[in-house]
Every structure is written in structure tokens, then in C-alpha cells.
Amino acid sequence: MPVPRPDLRIDPTTPPAVVAALDRAADRLTTVLTLLDADARRIRPWLGDPVSAEAAARYAGHAADAAGAAIERIRTLRSEIVRARDAVARSGRDYAGTEAGIVRSWTRS
Predict the structure, then answer these.
(1) Sign of torsion over alpha carbons 70, 72, 74, 77
(2) I want to staple 22 with a disulfide (CB 3.0 to 4.6 A). Which of 12, 78, 85, 87 is the partner?
(3) pLDDT 10s digits, 33-82
(4) Any long-range contacts for 10-14 (C-beta under 8 Å, 24+ apart)?
(5) What is the Cα–Cα distance from 94 to 86, expressed in whole angstroms?
């Protein structure tokens, strides 16, 4: 009688590689967010007068902090990448633990 073998296997190096790739993506977004946030808050009077200075300040505040601001959407994307990274890491650990348990069960006498 043939020895049963699992039909599906995941290369054990894949989950850590995916985690590392997601870490790199989150790190790149962190760098970009820092630069964007600093740039969005830099107030430049468009015409050099008080009215355009006030308009520039309102625009900067809206660009950096308003609901639906592009920077906030990028922050949300970064948070989603971090959540995905954590889920892949958990799944990888669970998979490795399950595989180890299966191997132990096959090797017991």
C-alpha cells in the first residue's frame, strides 16, 4: 500500500519572503509619507500677500489632515500592508507548526 503524502505543500521559505517584501513596501511608504507630510505642511504664500498666505495655510492643512486627503489614503494603504504582513507571518508560523506536527506523526514508531 502506498504511503499517503500531502497533495499541497508550501515552500517554507515563501511566507518569510512575502513578509520581507511587505516590510520593504511598508518601509518605502513610511519614507514617502514622511516627505509628503513635510511638503504638504510647508506653507508657501503664492503671491506673497496675507490673503494668499492664508489660502496656502488652509490648503496645506487640508492636504495633510482632511478626511479623504491623499496622504491619509496612503497611510491607510501602509496600514493595510502591515496587516497583510502580520497575517502572512501568522499563517507561515501556523503552516510550519502544522507541517512539523505531520512530520512528527509520520516518523513516530
Answers:
(1) negative
(2) 85
(3) 998 888 877 776 677 788 888 888 888 777 777 777 888 888 999 999 99
(4) 10/95, 12/95, 12/96, 12/99, 14/92
(5) 12
Show the cell assigned to 45.
Answer: 504664500
d(CA 45, CA 48) in angstroms, rounded, equals: 5
The three three-digit cell numbers of residue 85, written as one number: 504582513
Radius of gyration of the chain (CA): 25
Tell me the pLDDT band of 1, cut-offs 50, 70 and 90: low
User: In this structure, how many other beta carbons lie within 10 angstroms of the beta carbon of residue 105?
Assistant: 8
Residues 6+ apart with CB under 8 A from 88: 15, 18, 19, 22
- The angle subtended at Cα 103 by Cα 102 and Cα 109, nearest 5°, is 105
pLDDT band at 6 (very low <50, low <70, confident <90, very high): low
